[in-house]
What does this fold into?
Amino acid sequence: MSTTPAFDSSTVRFPISGANYIPLPDEKKDGHVRAHAVQTVNADAMTLYNLWRNETVLPIWMEGVVSVTRTGDTTSHWVMQAPGTDKQFEFDGEVTEDIPGKKISSFVTNGPTEGTTNTVTFEPHPFGRGTIVTLLIDYVVPGGLLGNAAAAIASRSPEQIAIENVRHLKELAESGEIPRVTSQPAGPRGVIGKWKEFILGETNPTPPGTSEAEQPEDLPRKNTLGGTR
Amino acid sequence: MKAVCWMGTGKVEVHNVDDPKILNPQDAIIKITRTAICGSDLHLYNGYIPSMESGDILGHEFMGIVEEVGSEVKKLKRGDRVVIPFTIACGNCFFCKKSLWSCCDNTNPNAHIAEVAYGYTGSALFGFSHIYGGYAGGQAQYARVPFADVGPIKIENDLPDEKVLFLSDIFPTGYQAAVNANIEPGDTVAVWGAGPVGLFTIASAYMLGAGKVIAIDRFPERLALAREYCGATTIDYSDGKSVVEALRDLSYGGGPDSCIDAVGMEAHGTDVAATYDKVKQALMMETDRPTVLRQAIQAVRKGGSISIPGVYGGTLDKVNFGAAFAKGVIMKMGQTHMHSYLQPLLERVEQGQIDPSFLISHRIGIEDVPDMYKVWRDKEDNVTKIVIDPWVDTTAA
It folds into this structure.
C-alpha cells in the first residue's frame, strides 16, 4: 500500500470568484496521479448528474469503460479496458458522497487501481452559461509511475483521461452525440500514416455516445439524455 | 467510391475507397455532384499544415444530393439538394449560440491535438488535417456530413451547381473578410491576393459600401478578373515596387481604411523580409511567412482595420507589431462562421447580384485532380479556379 495520505476532496477549493486562485490538484507522487478537468456545459446540473450517477450507461461516454453493473445502492462492479492495450481489468467501486444534482464522490475498493478516488461537482455558472463540471481524480496507477509513462506514450495519460471524460460528457449533453471519425473511409494509410494515427491518439476508441453504428447491443441508448433536448 | 487522397507532401492520388457510412444519428451521406480545389488545399499539398496522415481524403468545398440520413436528422431527406459549409458545427454550444460557428466546441474528435497547439480547439473542418478533426473530405464521390440539420443549406431553386457551389467556402469567406474589415461607405480597401477568396472579398467589399477596392497580386489573369469582373484597381507587385508606397498613392496619402490579407502563411514577396521568411520556412525555423501581414500593418491608415481570412498555422517572425500598436490598428481574423452567411449570400446569388461562377477556369473529372494540384500550385495554364465533377469519366477520351 502506498504511504500517501488518502486524497480528501473536501479540502479542495473549487474555482470561485473574488478569491485568489488556488490550483486544483495536478501532480504525480508515490504512484498516485492527481488530475483535474473543468468545463462549462450548456445543460442543467440534474441532467449531467444523472448521466454520471447512472453507472450502467457510463460505457456510452466514458473512455475505457467496458461495462458497469450495480451490486448495491452505492456499490458497482466495473470492467475496464487499459488505454492503448487489449488488456481488461476489473474493480469494485463505492459511492462515498452523493448529493443529487451537485456532487458525486467515489472510491475504488479493490483491483489494480485500488484506492483511486473520483469527485465530480456540478455548479450553476454564475452568469447563466450552464453548469460548471469539475472533475478531480486521484489515480492509483497500476505499475506506478512507470505505468503512467507507458499510458502517456499510448496518448492517454491519466490527466488526459480526466479531460476526455468531461469533454465527452459535454459533447453528449450539448450536441446529442460524441463526434467520431473512426471507421470512415480513407486511402491506404501506410506505415507512416498508421504511426501518425497512433501518435496523435486516434487509435484510442471514441466512446459510442448515441451512435447506432457502434453501440453495443445491450446498452440503453435511447433516452440516455432523459429527453432534455 | 473514388476519392482524392493526400499521400504525402506534394503527393495526391485517386484511390478506390469504401463508401462512407452513417456513424452518428445526426449524420447524412451526400452524393457529391460538384466539388472544388481550394487555395488552402495547397497548404496541405505543400505540407505546411501538420497532422496530415497518408490516405486522408481531401476537399472541403462540395455540394450534392442527400443519399441517406441518420435517425435524428429532421430537416433533410433523401433527394434534397444541398451545399455543405466547410466548417462543422453542433448548433447548441456556447459558441454556436453566439453565431461563432467556426469556434464550435463539440465537433472535433481530436480536440486534444488542437489544445496542445492552440490552447482550445475550433470547430472541425472537412478534409483539413487531423488537428481540425480528421474528417474525410469532399473531393470524392460521397461524403459523410455530421450535424446535417445544422450545416447544409438546401438549394430549392434551379440555379446550376456552379453558381451555388462556392457557398461552401470561398464566397462566405470573402464576405466575412469584408465584414471583419469594418467597411464604411466610401472607404478605400486593399486586398492582398486576387485568388478565389480575394476576388470574393473584393466583390463583397463593394456590396458593403466600399468606395474603392485595390487588389494586389502578381498573376495577370487574376488581376484581370479583379479589374474586369470585380471592378478593383490593381497593383502587380512582381516588378519589385513597394506595395506600401503604391497604396499610399492610391489612397491619396492617408493609407487604406481597411487592409485584408487573403493570402496567409505561404505569401510571396519581392523584398528582403520575404526572402528571409522563405529561407527560414525552408529550414523549418518558421512555420508561416507573414510577408503580407507586415505590408498590411505598414500600409493601413491610423485607426484602420486589418482583416485576415488567409490561413496561418503556427508562429510568425519579425511582425511589425509596434507599427500596429502605434497606429491603433484593429485586427480580426479566423475561420469563417459559415452558417451565418449561407442564407443571405444564397439570396444575393438568387437575386443575380453576383454570379459566383465567374472565376472558374478549369472543369475536370476526379482522375485529373492529382495533375491539377500541380497546375494549381504552380499557377500554370492561367488557372483561377478548378471545379470537379466527381462522376464524369475523363479517362476514356
Remarks:
- The radius of gyration of chain B is 20 Å.
- The first helix of chain B runs from residue 41 to 45.
